[in-house]
Amino acid sequence: MKSMKALFVVAALTVSSLAMAAGGGDRTFARMEQARKVSMEAYQLAQKQKAEAPVAETNAKSAEHANC
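Structure (tokenized):
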């Protein structure tokens, strides 16, 4: 009888853990995929802005001090 109770407890715990594990995996994966897409878009935008930024600008002050 004790072995039957132990088997029942183990079976109940196994079934409950499997049921809980299957519930949120798809939602979690979808959230991770969405976060990855958003971060990649932000990274690409930052790289694009970085490439378009001017390297150097000339102004009158730097021209005055060219021979210093």
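The helical segments are 2-21, 25-52, 60-64. Residues 31 and 37 are 10 Å apart (CA to CA).
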